[in-house]
Amino acid sequence: MRKTSDLIWQDAQHQVLFEILDLIGQPDSGSAVVLQLQQYAETHFTLEEQYMEMLSYPGIDAHRRAHDEFREEIATLPCADDFDVAFRQVVSTYLTEWLKRHVFGIDKELESFILESSFK
Ligand SMILES: [Fe+2]
Ligand SMILES: [Fe+2]
């Protein structure tokens, strides 16, 4: 059940990211989904970073480094349609675990900070 104090845009974008990561592990997935992940992750990370800059968020450097780590992980994913399905499932699980730790860790701290500001 969603709390009324949740940051709606952030939650909705995380949900989309988890859905894309799930698609990557599906047997009929291909290069289009990898591209979608790269584009959507960039959109999401950029928006969080814009909020952090606007609010002079104290944890901005560590948070940006975490985003950069994920950016690097997904930038090297094979963009071929014959990208092996077993490998894609491993990648999907690994990135999903990474994202869960991020979303329930430093993203939650950022969420609280934004909610206490006047820019939510
Ligand atoms: Fe983040
Ligand atoms: Fe996030």
UniProtKB/TrEMBL annotation:
Q: Which GO terms describe its molecular function?
A: metal ion binding; oxygen carrier activity
Give UniProt keywords alphabetically.
Answer: Iron, Metal-binding, Oxygen transport, Transport
Annotated Hemerythrin-like domain ranges read 11-110
UniProt family annotation: Belongs to the hemerythrin family.
User: What name does the UniProt record give this protein?
Assistant: Hemerythrin-like domain-containing protein
